């Protein structure tokens, strides 16, 4: 089947990307064992789990680069095993390293990828220039990839994944090596791409940032799905807040008076942490502390909502 023919394969009734009962072993090692996964269009879905949980193996199978031993995968309703060319036209894959072609320039890499996807020749130069500007590599467009920093190579890898305007984006540790400013830009870009209707899947260890990017998450451990959760559901479960005041004794006395369980955390300036079930409760507590004359220096979540879920899961730690 040619690329042109594959693009006319009808899409099924399951938009986005999904996996059902997917397993993959390497010899005696069960890298992925009966994982269920779904990333809807128009949303950013985080893939979260400890090292060795099977995240990269799952992403490689979703990207049609690794065949599952069992289970089914659908990319916009297409089975990659039977419609591999059509499925790959819809997938943008960003691995955790740029990979080959380090002697080529950033521009040459993107031009070559555009040719692989058989983009109309007349529009390739404009498409490449636009993507280089999008990821802020336009001034380095004609530098060999090998001279780019780790963060710059990550931005080039993202541009490479976007070259054919895929409807599904699979990103493995996309923020790795990025400076704080570039992380913010990545977050805004992924939200924009999701807003355009793309299904965006992000695997990352930076859980605090996923709260600002993701609409939901799939948690995996030991090759299995252990929880699926929207960000709204994560926020409703409650999370731990950290409070620092000018008078820690007065703070702990007030919390005891209110019947709240807390934990004193050691540090240069001692703080107190406690679990609050919702944002309204946090606002009410802050107001009560201020009215009681307690000098509050800081009052904020000690962890993001998804990080709170992850830390409370009975998962195997790395």
UniProtKB/TrEMBL annotation:
It holds the Pfam family ABC_tran. Residues 17-247 form the ABC transporter domain. The keyword Nucleotide-binding applies. InterPro entries: AAA+_ATPase, ABC_transporter-like_ATP-bd, P-loop_NTPase. One of its GO terms (molecular function) is ATP binding. Keywords: ATP-binding, Nucleotide-binding, Transport. The keyword Nucleotide-binding applies. PANTHER family: ABC TRANSPORTER, ABC TRANSPORTER, ATP-BINDING PROTEIN. Belongs to the ABC transporter superfamily. This is ABC-type multidrug transport system ATPase subunit. It comes from Arthrobacter bambusae.
């Amino acid at each position: 089947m040619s690329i042109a023919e594959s693009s006319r394969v009808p899409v099924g009734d399951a938009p986005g990307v999904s996996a059902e009962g997917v397993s993959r072993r390497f010899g005696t090692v069960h890298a992925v064992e009966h994982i269920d996964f779904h990333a809807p269009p128009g949303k950013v879905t985080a893939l979260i789990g400890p090292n060795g949980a099977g995240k990269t193996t799952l992403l490689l199978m979703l990207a049609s680069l690794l065949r599952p031993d069992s289970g089914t995968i659908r990319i916009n309703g297409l089975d990659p095993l039977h419609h591999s060319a059509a499925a790959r036209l819809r997938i943008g894959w960003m691995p955790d390293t740029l990979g080959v072609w380090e002697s080529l320039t950033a521009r040459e890499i993107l031009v070559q990828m555009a040719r692989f996807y058989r983009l109309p020749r007349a529009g390739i130069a404009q498409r490449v220039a636009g993507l280089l500007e999008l990821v802020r590599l336009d001034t380095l467009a004609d530098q060999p990839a090998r001279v780019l920093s780790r963060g710059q190579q990550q931005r080039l890898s993202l541009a490479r994944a976007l070259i054919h305007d895929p409807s599904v984006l699979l990103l493995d540790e996309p923020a790795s090596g990025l400076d704080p400013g570039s992380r913010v830009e990545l977050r805004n870009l992924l939200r924009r791409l999701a807003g355009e209707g793309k299904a965006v899947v992000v695997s990352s260890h930076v859980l605090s940032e996923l709260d600002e990017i993701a609409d939901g998450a799939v948690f995996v451990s030991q090759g299995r799905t252990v929880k699926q959760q929207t960000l709204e559901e994560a926020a409703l479960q409650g999370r731990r807040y950290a409070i620092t005041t000018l008078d820690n004794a007065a703070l702990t006395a007030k919390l005891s008076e209110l019947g709240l369980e807390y934990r004193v955390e050691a540090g240069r300036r001692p703080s107190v942490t406690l679990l609050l079930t919702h944002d309204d409760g946090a606002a009410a507590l802050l107001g009560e502390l201020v009215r009681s004359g307690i000098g509050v220096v800081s009052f904020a979540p000690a962890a993001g909502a998804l990080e709170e879920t992850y830390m409370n899961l009975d998962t195997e730690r790395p």
